[in-house]
Amino acid sequence: EDLNADSIDLMELMMAAEETFGMDEVEESAMSGLKTVGDVYDKIEELGNALYGGLNDLMQKHGICGHVRGIGARFGIYFGMDNPEDDYDFRKIVAKYDADAGAEFIGKMLEQGVYLHTYGKSPYPNHNGFGITHTMDDINYTLEAADKALKSMRG
């Protein structure tokens, strides 16, 4: 749908999206420094690297078998899968993915105010994402919650 934005100006686009889709107003500080599409990609990459690397480090710290695979702002948490190369083979995912650990983690994160998407107890990882309005403070909060959640899980 045309958002009636006259240019690629990011703030203009966000205001049009807010009006068209009834979105809440975006904090201006969350958008500071974003002047071009390249700036948006850079921010997503910075947040993603911090989140994915942080989650992988925490899984290792707490002895949880698994890893995070992310690209851009989308990611999956592959509980029970020690070899990231297996992510490309759906048969291996279905055979190895630990749906119970995934569901347990999602529940523990929700208890701390962090929503992660769930497909229920599916035989493959849930996929999640974040947006350009998220900040490094949001990522750090998420990692603190994940540290507590993973600490309480079986290893």
What percentage of residues falls in helices of 4 or more residues? Answer: 40-55%
Output the strand order for the largest sheet: 1-2-3
Cα end-to-end separation: 47 Å
Low-confidence stretches: none
What string gives the helices and strands in order? HHEEHHEH
> How much is the average pLDDT?
84
DSSP strand count: 3
Question: Notable features of this structure?
Answer:
155 residues, mainly alpha, 3-stranded antiparallel beta sheet, 5 helices, 48% helix, 10% strand
Written overview of the protein:
With 155 residues, this protein is mainly alpha-helical. It contains five helices and three strands, in the order ααββααβα. It has a three-stranded antiparallel β-sheet. α2 runs parallel beside α5. 19% of the residues are buried.
Write the layout of secondary structure elements.
Elements: H1 10-21, H2 37-61, E1 66-71, E2 74-79, H3 90-96, H4 99-111, E3 127-129, H5 136-152
Antiparallel strand pairs: 1-2, 2-3
Helix pairs in contact: 2-5
Quick summary:
The protein has 155 residues and is mainly alpha-helical.
